[in-house]
Design goal:
The structure holds two protein chains of two kinds. Chain A has 13 helices and seven strands. Chain A is α/β, with parallel strands linked by helices. Chain A has a single domain (11-305), classed as Rossmann fold (3-Layer(aba) Sandwich). Chain A starts with 9 loop residues before the first helix and ends in a 26-residue tail after the last helix. By secondary structure, chain B is an alpha/beta fold. Chain B has two domains: 3-180, 3-Layer(aba) Sandwich (Rossmann fold); 194-325, Rossmann fold. The longest helix of chain B is centred in the N-terminal third of the chain and has 15 residues, at 6-20. Classes of the chains: A alpha/beta, B alpha/beta. The structure holds thiamine diphosphate and magnesium ion.
Chain lengths: 335, 326
């Protein structure tokens, strides 16, 4: 079942599990915190898609750049984001990544190459192209990864970004996480092609579809695309076929809209990477997943405690930091 | 009179207009399952030719509505979030709004754009909390921002029947609010403001979600012996200047209460109109209470700090009276 065409040592294999487990449990904790009203606003959980962010980011270096989406927690954790500062941000606390300015859909850490989650579908794709152009101009072999969904795949700006990257041979990897739906809209009704990767042909770049429930397959495909990009071979469109096991956002159930069958969800759940992958690790004698689980639990426990004890930012801070170059009277107050 | 929610009032308006005119079609994201609730039941009643779930392609479907309108349809476009106006901006202001004029007055572009979740609502942060009406008004687009269920239904219906592009902003904070709505057929014409509460000491011109806040404030002021008049423009373009100016001439003091950015915001336009037309009646400088010029921050205490609030309005009203000429 597991496709291993790029070699990983034992530590690497365990790291993949640790990251996936961290994302899954992080999201489960987030739901609890939302339900306890400790997290305001809207959160979109990454549950079911962990193998994608994990496989992709494991093939990246710390200085590579990613642009993320509204469903960004998984990307950020996989790129090395600190769960303590993430949860603090989700709670709107001063110790959060964005000092409480951003919340779930905007977490960023430029020092880790995380150019931000994004509230606007598709908006990160051209930003990744810009980071890639800079990498090229500075003669580094950094690459940039743009994450977006099947829904994002239909946004005009994503198509513009694909073309820009192709004509300038930018070191970008476009990762389309095809989870089958954009909120209630099935991709089968929103695209006239079955495999979104075929769209790459129209832009003159390689396109590949991989099993997004198989972390090793994602890692392998990403590694090849990243090598090509680092070597000056230009962009790739990688479609990862996956599924979200939960609603579009935390409170979806309460809205009472139903657009997927229980059978479909159950069918995909049989391929849960957090079942299949640890089972494989155990079977191969690579590690005891339970030990990793305990580590992850302790880390999240500490993260939640850290976020809880962090204070809220002082209200007057709301007007700070808008401009790198400040002028008197800017930004204007409302009164 | 029966009471229904603002959201239901919008929904009724759309259903009635679809029954009345077979040219009315609905275009938007997740409208068949009605994520926002306005389009509930429309697919069952009118079938798939009248209601379209689009891909996430706001510029595309906005332009599509323009073309359909020029060719005889009467589309209603729903934007799932307020910021989608930005994604569609060229198609709105440079195409739909300009084409008729630029073609020498040929044709009609009867598109209605509904923004059923406008403004901030605790924790939606910078990219989901705007009320981008000043930008559209600046470019000449007709805009209404109803503040009650009754106004929402009447203005939405009038907007759909209007032969020009009209944007209807439905503030997120008002969607669950209940209020009286007549059962019989009615519309509220564009360009008519309404005095929502009469008073004699000062005028509060409040927009959209701030109208209920202004009314509560007026009540509190009444207890202090201050009589505040609350004017709701409802239709921001065309604007009913007469109703606003009459009120300002009567009270001599005016406070503009608007939840859009301060610089080049809607309150700035109102202030200019009042300064030009009612200068002689003013007994105190015009005051504005608006949103600060920053993206709405996520954290609740930060968010509260940058948005115009009832508490600040109260303080502003007291200061306005204190600053008046004897
Ligand atoms: C430009 C834009 N249009 C619409 C929305 C509202 N919206 C948020 S997420 C979403 C669906 C996105 O689907 P997809 O890209 O497949 O990502 P998924 O949610 O499946 O992870 C929509 C329509 C938005 N945030 N931005
Ligand atoms: Mg999707």
């Amino acid at each position: 079942m597991m496709r291993v065409d790029v070699r990983l040592d034992r530590d690497g294999l365990i790291t993949l599990y640790r990251t996936m487990r961290l994302i899954r449990r992080f999201e489960e904790r987030v739901v609890e915190l939302v339900n306890r009203d400790e997290i305001p606003g809207v959160t979109h959980e990454y549950v079911g898609q962990e193998a994608v962010a994990t496989g992709v980011c494991h093939a990246l270096r710390p200085d590579d750049v990613i642009t993320s989406t509204h469903r960004g927690h998984g990307h950020i954790l996989a790129k090395g984001g600190d769960p303590r500062r993430m949860i603090a941000e989700l709670m709107g606390k001063a110790a959060g990544y964005n000092r409480g300015r951003g919340g779930s859909m905007h977490i960023a850490d430029l020092s880790l190459g995380i150019f931000g989650a994004n509230g606007i579908v598709g908006a990160g794709a051209p930003i990744a192209c810009g980071a890639a152009l800079a990498a090229k101009l500075e003669k580094t072999d950094r690459v940039a990864v743009a994450f977006f969904g099947d829904g994002g795949m239909n946004q005009g700006v994503v198509h513009e970004a694909l073309n820009l990257a192709a004509i300038w041979k930018l070191p970008v990897l476009f990762v389309c996480e095809n989870n089958g739906y954009a909120i209630s809209a099935p991709i089968s009704q929103m695209a006239a092609v079955e495999r979104l990767a075929v769209r790459a042909v129209g832009y003159g770049m390689p396109g590949e579809s991989v099993d997004g429930m198989d972390v090793l397959a994602v890692y392998g495909a990403t590694t090849h695309a990243v090598e090509r990009a680092r070597g000056g071979g230009g962009p790739t469109l990688l479609e990862c076929r996956t599924y979200r096991f939960v609603g579009h956002f935390t409170a979806e159930k309460a809205r009472g809209i139903k657009y997927r069958t229980d059978d479909e969800i159950a069918e995909w759940r049989t391929r849960d990477p957090l079942e299949t992958y640890p089972a494989w690790l155990k079977q191969e004698g690579i590690c005891d997943p339970a030990q990793v689980d305990a580590e992850v639990e302790a880390r999240l426990e500490e993260a939640v405690a850290f976020a809880r004890q962090s204070p809220f930012p002082a209200p007057e801070e709301a007007l700070d930091g808008m401009y790198a170059v400040p002028y008197p009277g800017l930004p204007a107050r409302g009164w | 009179m029966r009471e229904i929610r603002y959201l239901e009032a919008l929904s009724e308006a759309l259903r009635e207009e679809m029954r009345r005119d077979p040219k009315v079609i609905v275009v938007g994201e997740d409208v068949r399952h009605s994520l926002r609730g306005v389009t509930k039941g429309l697919l069952d009643e009118f079938g798939p030719d009248r209601i379209y779930d689009t891909p996430i392609s706001e510029a595309g479907f906005t332009g599509l509505a323009t073309g359909a309108a020029m060719a005889g349809m009467r589309p209603v476009v729903e934007y799932q979030i307020n910021a989608l106006i930005f994604v569609a901006f060229d198609q709105l202001v440079d195409q739909a709004q300009k084409l008729r004029y630029m073609m020498g007055g040929q044709g009609r572009i009867p598109v209605t754009y509904l923004v059923p979740a406008s403004g901030a609502r605790r924790g939606l942060a910078g990219q989901h909390s705007d009320h981008p009406y000043p930008l559209l008004i600046h470019m000449g687009m007709k805009v209404v921002v109803p503040s009650t269920p009754r106004d929402a239904k009447g203005l939405f219906k009038a907007a759909i029947r209007e032969d020009d592009p009209v944007v209807v902003f439905a503030p997120a904070a008002l969607l669950p609010v209940k209020g009286p709505v007549p059962e019989e057929e009615y519309t509220i014409p564009l360009g008519q403001g309404e005095v929502k509460r009469e008073g004699s000491d000062l005028t509060i011109v409040a927009v959209g979600p701030l109208v209920p806040e202004a009314l509560k404030c007026a009540e509190l002021l009444a207890a202090e012996g201050i009589s505040a008049e609350v004017v709701d423009p409802r239709s921001l373009l065309p604007l009913d200047r007469d109703t606003i100016l009459a009120s300002v001439r009567k009270t001599g003091r005016v406070l503009l209460f608007d939840d859009s950015n301060r610089s080049c915001g809607y309150a700035a336009e109102l202030a200019a109109v009042i300064a030009e037309e009612a200068w002689a009646s003013l007994q105190a400088p015009i005051r504005r209470l608006t949103r600060a010029d920053v993206p709405v921050p996520f954290s609740p205490p930060l968010e509260a700090y940058v948005l115009p609030s009832r508490d600040r309005l109260l303080a502003e009203c007291r200061q306005l009276l204190a600053a008046s000429r004897a």
